[in-house]
Fold this protein.
Amino acid sequence: MVFMKKLILFDIDGTLLVGENHIHLEAFDYAFKHLWNVNASINEIDHAGKTDRQCVFEVLQKHNIERSVIEKNLPETFQVMMSYFKKNLISRGKYVLNPGVKELLLQLIRDKCVLGVVSGNFTGIGKLKLKALDILDFFNVFGFGEISERRSDLVKEAIKQAEKKYNQKFLRNDIFVVGDTPFDIMSGKDNKTKTIAVVAYRYTADELKKYKPDYLFQDFKNYKKVVEMIEA
């Protein structure tokens, strides 16, 4: 059995993927209108870093829809979102990796690290994004956004999957949560892991510093420095 040294859990939007994904945001609005018959928008809330499940609840509850009704129809909501996203991905989807990401992932795999994804995206949309970026096969464990409104639960799920898959316990100092929002940092701290913040489109370096990540990078262009820090 090969012993895997570290577990690195990446966010998608703003961390692996450049910027914010507009087709994904449009998919929420499409579902609100065509499934729920509600003139609502995802932009009614501050959605950065939140799980898709949490976003659906927050928006629809603002429009006086009961939580129990939303819960019952969540699977169909995600199905409608997926249909819209997949259709528009073909015609409009242009996805770009953040600079240095591919090199970083390749080096971490060479160094016997387990790579995972912890993303507020629900599974269908999250994996389509990774596939469009041609990096889905890099990842072996996943914590996606339909399972909980608490991002820390997604981290917990990914750790559980990794320890079962590789039949080993990962020390919390050997687990890194990588993301571009305060929610990413807090979810790592909730699970007592190391945290790596990267500056993207939504939060500045000074804003992220307030949440005290273990490490903060402006970007991944100097990916070797990131690897050195992880391997230290």
